[in-house]
Hints:
By secondary structure, this protein is α+β, with helices and mostly antiparallel strands. It has helices at 27-41, 56-64, and strands spanning 11-13, 46-52, 68-72, 83-89. It has a four-stranded mixed β-sheet with strand order 1-2-4-3, with helices on one face. It is flat. The termini are far apart.
Amino acid sequence: MEKGKFADYEQEIGLLYLRSDFQGRGIGKELFTLGYNEIKKNKCDKFFISCNKYNIKARGFYEKMGGKLVLEDEDNYNKRVVQAKYHYDVK
């Protein structure tokens, strides 16, 4: 990632992960909404979330929640460290 690329963001949802046996129950949406509302309460106008580039289910979830892809790391031999970043506007 470019140094400082996200320096103008005051907020980030650092990690939102559910075990597969809890997915599909609306829990992720509730957690996302809690984070979103907290960011909004703090009067921030945008935030971002990172996830593994290869986690297709997570990426679909973040897009469904309104995220816009703003950065995707290049492929790496260690697929665990390759990230995709999604931007959200707070309304």
